[in-house]
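Readers outside the structure-tokenisation community will struggle with the description of the input data as it stands. What matters is that the chain and its backbone geometry are given together, residue for residue. For illustration, here is how one protein appears when written out as sequence plus structure tokens:

…
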Amino acid sequence: MRQKILNESMKHVASHGFTVRAIQRAVTEMGYSAALATLVPRGAGSLVEHFVDECDSRLSLRIATTGEDDLKDLTPEEKMVKVIGWRLDMLKEHAEHWGAALAVMGLPENLPTTLRQRAMLADELVGATGPTMTGLDSSKGGNITAAAKAAGFYGDRAAAGALYAACELFLVTDTSPGFADTDDFVRQRTREMFDLASGVEQVGGF
């Protein structure tokens, strides 16, 4: 029942945002008392969690089913731009409400779920792009120590997560037609990140 309520609630996000009101509207339209909204214990937090999980699942499926063809001829930087673009596209229909949703995600009762989701998304981004963002490529052999490999593993995911978060925040304030400024921002910030990684790798080579 909880899943059905959340699915139905998404139909009301356009009008009410990621709020308890959207959940209550869903419950009443399903023919139940609004009190049944208590089946969604964290209210807006659960609704945002549901949407993010759905988006992340769609991204994973897209990478698994079409990623090989869509990404195979791209550089790691271009792959990152592409995959972040896919994920941001899922937010655009709810962009006017996403700033409030981000605030909900940061509440103490929702933070553990938010951190888990962000870690999984960062892992997905790195998996699609390749471990080359920090200049500490853990996939390379040679004289790289275990500590350096670990630093590369976690550093790549931290960099990918920070990059995505910056792009997401930019999107919620973007009023340009078709979110064109967001697309430019993604390309620019990704270029800066990979340029920095290249510099780290070159320094490490001395």
